[in-house]
Known about the structure:
about 500 residues, alpha/beta, 3-stranded mixed β-sheet, 20 helices, 22 strands, about 40% helix, about 15% strand, elongated, binds xanthosine-5'-monophosphate
Amino acid sequence: MEDKEIRKRVVKYIRKKIAGLPNPEMAITFADVVIIDRSSRVGSRSDIRKDSKGLVTELTKSIRLNIPIVSANMADVTESAMAISLARKGGLGFIHQFMSIEKRIAQVKKVKRADNEVIESPYRIKPSATLKDALDFMAKCKTSGLLVVDDSDVIVGILTSRDVDFKKYQPEERLRKILVTEVMTKKVITAPANISVKEAITILEEHKIEKLPLVNEENKPVGLITAKDVVKKYQFPFAVRDRRGRLLVGASVGLAVKFLEEVSALTEAGADVILLDTARANAFRVAEAVAAIKKNFRNIQLIAGNVDNPEGARLLIDAGVDAVKVGIGPGSACKTRVETGVGCPQLSAVTECVAVAGEIPIIADGGISDGGEFAKAIVAGAKSVMLGSALAGTDESPGRIYSDKKEKFKIYRGSASLDFQLDRLEDGSLDDVRAPEGESRRISYKGAVGPIIETFINNLCSSMSYADAMTIEELRGRKFRYQTRSGFEEGMPKK
Ligand code: XMP
């Protein structure tokens, strides 16, 4: 797209979007606008979530989320625990890139193993194995059940905690003498491979069993449905899952090293989407990397960022990305604008990128700490938001809890902060310190992340109800009005 054509589109979109803005070239942010409310069809905010479609959105061209929230690919925000919690709520977590590829693979696998509709390769053991072998194997695989199969892989029994609970505390020599065949449950209730989850639940309930092996015509195991996993399906009705029932997860790669190999390994491990994570993505070498990844891995969903203007968004889109992450400098730990003078106030950055993005979803990254900013990012046209500090300081964010006389707290380090760079220098993942473009700070310990996500969602539903939007798409179509500084101050609670 020509520069002139880009600018024309942007100005047209902004004129339509923001009433009262003195000049469409002005760079503004969340506090400079209010969402215009409309005579609403929405009865209550619970109407929006009732049929579970109201908050559905696109993260990328082909990945849909059930809530428009993703967690930041930062070392103090997202590893497997955060990604699991977020995916169960309907969003998605991006495993950060600041650890070895082996560790990132392990983190991705942890998320993919957390919930299963059907376990496709259940752990097996031979009837001739000793109870000691079985217990060691169960501990190693962190499983409470093993299928017992003969030499032709035909199922002959099942060994569950019920079979071993009373025996496992016996002396080791004794455990070595007991064979699996002596303690396993021999009468195994099985089901055919194509059974529906609903039918499986009926069988689990009827027989009061925890595990239901799925077998083929030769009675060989082809899967396993467990009561624990089935319960999770009901417990987390909005969870986002792949076609095998596993939670969705994203993984980040940087540009520095062998990024193609890393993309391959992370995808192999089960990552559903790759994030090419650079502080400055409006660069030809990033576009070249995007094109190389898309050329080598045709089925991959690829996000790249960050950019803050239409030129950057178009560069990535023309190179083939499936979503663009927008935000340079709005983050709560960012110092980029201070240190370099570069960047764009976030509402303008998002709006302008959306204006030229066409079908490619925009993720608004940074500067969102309350429901108002969240809703404004969506009205600006983003299809999802990335949260950093809002999710940090929780049980699910990495890092230890500290405490002093005042409170319990965790540390939130900007990815380009001096503290984080020094930590990376120490663990060998960085050779030298660069001029810091971020800060680190303490964040009060907040407990579980679940209620925080729920609050964001409830606030969003309220915004939608004011704006007469039953869906995220409708909210994206709503408009702003430019407000004065005193207008903004009027809206703040008075001390
Ligand atoms: P919030 O406001 O949610 O922002 O805490 C999270 C986002 O901030 C970005 N980020 C940085 N930006 N220097 C920067 O300029 C940094 O050190 C830094 N660390 C994180 C990042 O986009 C993240 O998602």
